[in-house]
Design a protein that fits this description.
alpha+beta; elongated
Length: 232
């Protein structure tokens, strides 16, 4: 004969199939939530570092302009010392040295989200010749070949076209070719910053007046159309 204890033991010996399915579903949901929290936590840290980078770049530009009558660096042919940039994230090694001497060291010149802070980009002349470093942000300076003249920033106080708090100076642009934001084709493969899957989430922007703000991708538009499309 089976005792009551045996019967109870049989009833509680394990989970039913339905109970197991529920447990697995709950665990999967919790793991999914944890993954999202971790992912967005990392992205929030990257955005915070990006803001700090651009603020430091802004301080360096303010220091430069203070010594040159409010003027920003002239990268046109009139100034061979800084001339030679083609893409808007290129900058002559002499100009980079100026920014470094004013506090914008190498680590501040790359978005933590775009994987471009490596020796191939920093020491670009060593690998490809020329006199420019390939940086992680877009610099809207006069004389950079792919920067339209009406976007180039001449003075920190503005040039009358737009107010300084509305004029982008350095931008964490999104970059695409044929609608693909995951990489661009060049000597080295780079990708857009702050991707959310296959689509950018947005980017951080330094304005002429020194303030920094996040701009969501849905608020961006095509600003520079050249070798690639630059949105900001």
């Amino acid at each position: 004969m089976r005792t009551a204890t045996d019967t109870d033991r049989g009833k509680t010996a394990g989970f039913s199939r339905t109970e197991m399915i529920v447990v697995v579903a709950v665990l999967a949901t919790l793991l999914g939530v944890l993954f999202v929290v971790i992912r967005f936590g990392k992205e929030n840290r990257r955005r915070a570092q990006c803001r700090a980078n651009l603020r430091q770049i802004g301080v360096a530009f303010q220091s430069y302009a203070k010594n040159f009558g409010d003027s920003l660096p002239d990268c046109t042919r009139r100034n061979p010392e800084f001339n030679g940039a083609v893409w808007p994230w290129d900058m002559h090694v002499n100009l980079v040295s100026q920014l470094e001497s004013r506090g914008a060291k190498r680590q501040f010149l790359y978005c933590p989200s775009n994987d471009m802070n490596n020796d191939r980009h920093w020491d670009f002349p060593k690998y490809s010749g020329g006199h420019t470093r390939v940086l992680g942000y877009v610099f809207l300076l006069p004389g950079v070949r792919d920067v339209p003249a009406d976007m180039a920033c001449m003075k920190l106080s503005g040039d009358g076209r737009r107010k300084p708090d509305q004029a982008e100076l350095t931008v964490d642009a999104t970059v695409s070719q044929a609608g693909d934001y995951t990489h661009v084709t060049g000597l080295f493969t780079d990708r857009t910053s702050h991707l959310s899957g296959q689509i950018p989430a947005g980017g951080t922007i330094l304005f002429e007046d020194g303030h920094v703000a996040w701009r969501a991708y849905k608020q961006m538009r095509h600003q520079i159309i050249a070798h690639v499309v630059w949105d900001f």
